[in-house]
Amino acid sequence: MPHAPHHVIAIADAHDDAAAELDAALRGGPFHVALRAAIAARGLPLQRVQHHLSRHGVKVGVTSLSYWQQGARRPQRPESLRAVRALEEILRLPDESLIRLLTQADADTADRPPTGRSYRSFMEASDVLAKLLVELECSPDGGLHTLGHHERVRIGAGRELLGRESQHIVRAHRDGIDRFVAVHHGDPGCAPERMTLHTLENCRPGRVRRHHDTGVLVAELLFDTRLRAGDTFLFRYGVEDGTAGACREYVRSFGTPGGQYALQIRFDEDALPTRCHRFTRHSAAAPRSGRQELALSRRHRSVHLVEPRVRSGMVGIGWDWE
Where in the sequence is the domain holding 101, given as residue range(s)? Predict the structure, then answer.
């Protein structure tokens, strides 16, 4: 009897592995792993999945499908849940197999307090920020390199983010720079219309834009001089917030590598956390890494971190309440 070619055996083994992975994912989840395994087992590109969904009368973008299988977003709207049921048929899965994983995840997380902003909220805020920067005719970096950024955040007696103060040391990398665009992203449930901007040193307020749904405040800080390429400048400003509920972390995003960043969180004496830690994320979609416990100074009621040279991504401090 002739032997099967090696490449045929390899394909059969790969198929068996994909089937086993799918079976395990459907039993134990989570939803995005099961969805990704099902799509891989059927060998369908996302464009074909989208086409099949449209034939079932359901409209879902390729980007949404990609987010679903990455775990960056979860289908929640009625139209999205219709799409999940259609996917079970398209991908030849048992009835209710994907819906069950979604329901199970909702039950598991229903009683848990939120520990931070979701990927979706970051992406929505990023989209809003991009539009507001266009409205203010400002490029993402504003023509400035950051040499140093020191930030002080205050947490109130109600565990809310009361406000923050930022001091920047910058260098212009082109001529004619006379402003900086400051961004404040409040906690979920905040009210940007009740936030106030304070220009504290070497700047004055310009145009201010607010977006309620994402909690974003964008403000021009105008300089009294025009910087030439290579000039350095120091300025300081603050934002009063205090409009949301309990705050559990503070995160700063960096689009490009830069200079030193220092973050200090100061707590009210009647609301001290039990534990504090620093963390990093390569992007909003990436898992947290670089976790390190931080010692809270009881005398000064504060905790801090220092990044000698920031990299692209996110860095922040999180804490636990009793």
Answer: 6-109
